[in-house]
Design goal:
Elements (H helix, E strand, L loop, with lengths): L3 E7 L11 H12 L5 E6 L15 E5 L11 H12 L3 E5 L8 H11 L13 E5 L14 E5 L8 H4 L6 E8 L3 H4 L11 H5 L5 E8 L5 E5 L11 H14 L43
Parallel strand pairs: 1-2, 1-3, 3-4, 4-9
Antiparallel strand pairs: 5-6, 7-8, 8-9
C-alpha cells in the first residue's frame, strides 16, 4: 500500500485559551489518523515547516493559523516555495482564520489553490449555531450525520471558483447552513455593527466548508469552523475534517468515514500557554489583528 504524506502547519499562539488552539488542534487531528497505514501525518508549529525539504514529497499541506498579513503564506518566499509543488498537484487546505489572506498578490494565488477566501469588509464572522441538515454527496461527507454546532462560522466567502467558473475545475459546497436574520444583524468580529449587504441577503444559504478539484490535478478545501477548540469533541465536526484531510491527500475515504474516539483529557492536551498575553479590546484577540 502506498503511504501518502500530509503536512499540517499550525500557526503561532493567538486568541484567549481554548480558542484558535492551532497547535493542539493539529496534534489532535494527527492523533486521530495515527493508526492508519495509508497516510503519514507531520505536524509543524510556528507557521512553517522546520525543513522545507519535507514539502517535496508531500501529497497535501493544510494550514490552521492566523490570517490576513499574519498568515504564514503572506510571506512571498513561502508562496514561491509552495507554488511549483501546487502546480504539480499538491493538495492544499485551510482551517478557520487560515482561509483569510492578504495582500492581494497573495490572495490571487490562494484563491487558485483553495477555491475562495474570507475577504475583510465583504465576508462575515459572527458566532452562531449552524445547522447542517442536508449534506452534500462527496467523499468528505462520507459517514457524517447531520449536526448543529455553535462556532465562529465565516460566511459570504469570496468564491472565485464560482465567480469565474472553469470547465476543468470542480467546486463543491460541503457544509451549507442558513444564518437567521438575527445572526446577519449581529455584530461580527470584524465590525461593531452589521454590514448592510449581509443583512440584505436574509434567508440565503451559505457555504461554510467547500472542496475544490483543480486543473493541475490537485485538490483543495476550506473549513471555516474551529474557533472553539472544544468543538473537536463533536464526532461529526471532527469526522468531516478528518475525511477532508484524507481526500485532499488523495487517500480513499473509508465507506463509513474516518472513525475516531477521544479519550478523557484529549482536548486538554498541548494547549498553548496564553497567560499574560494582552487581550485586544473588542476583538478578543491576544495580539492586535493586522490590517
Amino acid at each position: 500500500m502506498v503511504k501518502h504524506k500530509l503536512i499540517l502547519i499550525a500557526g503561532d499562539p493567538s486568541h484567549p485559551p481554548r480558542m484558535h488552539e492551532y497547535r493542539a488542534g493539529m496534534l489532535l487531528l494527527q492523533q486521530c489518523l495515527a493508526q492508519r497505514d495509508d497516510i503519514e501525518v507531520e505536524v509543524h508549529t510556528g507557521g512553517w515547516v522546520e525543513d522545507e525539504a519535507t514539502l517535496d514529497d508531500a501529497d497535501a499541506v493544510v494550514f490552521f493559523s492566523d490570517g490576513r498579513a499574519a498568515h504564514p503564506l503572506a510571506d512571498p518566499d513561502r508562496r514561491a516555495r509552495l507554488e511549483p509543488l501546487l502546480e504539480k498537484g499538491l493538495g492544499f487546505g485551510a482551517l478557520h482564520y487560515g482561509v483569510e489572506l492578504s495582500p492581494q498578490p497573495a490572495v490571487r494565488r490562494f484563491d487558485k489553490w483553495l477555491g475562495g477566501t474570507y475577504e475583510f469588509g465583504y465576508s462575515y464572522n459572527p458566532f452562531w449555531e449552524a445547522e447542517f441538515t442536508n449534506l452534500a454527496e462527496h467523499p468528505i461527507t462520507t459517514g457524517v450525520a447531520p449536526f448543529a454546532l455553535r462556532d465562529e462560522w465565516y460566511f459570504n466567502i469570496r468564491f472565485r471558483a464560482e465567480e469565474q467558473p472553469s470547465s476543468d475545475t470542480t467546486f463543491t459546497p460541503i457544509l451549507v447552513a442558513t444564518p437567521t436574520s438575527e445572526v446577519r444583524s449581529s455584530p461580527g468580529g470584524d465590525s461593531r455593527k452589521p454590514y448592510e449587504h449581509i443583512v440584505a441577503d436574509a434567508g440565503r444559504a451559505e457555504t461554510l466548508m467547500w472542496a475544490l478539484e483543480r486543473p493541475d490535478g490537485g485538490r483543495g478545501f476550506g473549513f471555516t469552523g474551529a474557533h472553539f477548540h472544544d468543538n473537536w469533541g463533536n464526532d461529526q465536526f471532527r469526522k468531516v475534517v478528518l475525511n477532508a484531510l484524507l481526500w485532499v491527500s488523495k487517500v480513499e475515504v473509508p465507506e463509513d468515514g474516518v472513525d475516531s474516539v477521544l479519550a478523557e483529557g484529549d482536548l486538554d492536551k498541548n494547549l498553548d500557554d496564553k497567560d499574560g498575553l494582552p487581550v485586544c479590546t473588542g476583538c478578543g484577540n491576544l495580539v492586535p489583528l493586522p490590517v
